[in-house]
Amino acid sequence: MSKRRLTNRERLRKLLKEAEIGSAAHEELLAVQVAIEKPKRQAVTALIKLLKTSVCRDTQWFISRVLGTAKDPRAIRPLMQAAIASENKNYSSNFLWPLEKFDCTKQLDFFVNFMLRGGDPDEAMLACLYAIMAMDGPFKPAIVKKNIKKLLGKSKLQTEPDMELQAEHFKMSAADYLMSTYFNQVARVFHGKNEASAD
User: Fold this and answer.
1) Quick one: which of 5, 97, 119, 183 is 20 to 30 A from 66 by CA?
2) pLDDT in the model for residue 10
3) What is the pLDDT of residues 92-112, one digit of tens each?
4) CA atoms within 13 A on the CB side of 134
């Protein structure tokens, strides 16, 4: 039998219970608790501010998760900025996973560039793939073609063949999704024009 997933409030209570009273993590989590009790729009504003100032990984992870479930597009840019911040280098996926809850069509360049940054095919690269696969379009032709070309281009060689294969798999999956979605976009326009001219 599968275990019931904790709600955000239950997870927050658990994190607060585990944090040492008076510690930076405890103080940040208390601030998050106050923020999430506000009406949704105000809560998102407060959480974005806390994400920018937070220094504790548990707090950052929790805020990112809540921003993802809130699905407020104002959170997209702060999550992207946190993902590329040098201090979060090994924790980028914490900020990227919530972005699959949004339609980040306009941010396609960011996700492709992140995938091609030259690192190992890690969880952050996989999170970028999922964010790309959550994009609804429509894509601007020049932008989608440029990014497909980048994904299909020669990549930096990984040190291990298995890692290279995994990186290639992630890149090809992203390119395949973009090509398929763009093909359908063009086909809809083409058939729509033909139907209109036949009337």
Assistant:
1) 119
2) 87
3) 999 999 999 999 999 999 999
4) 19
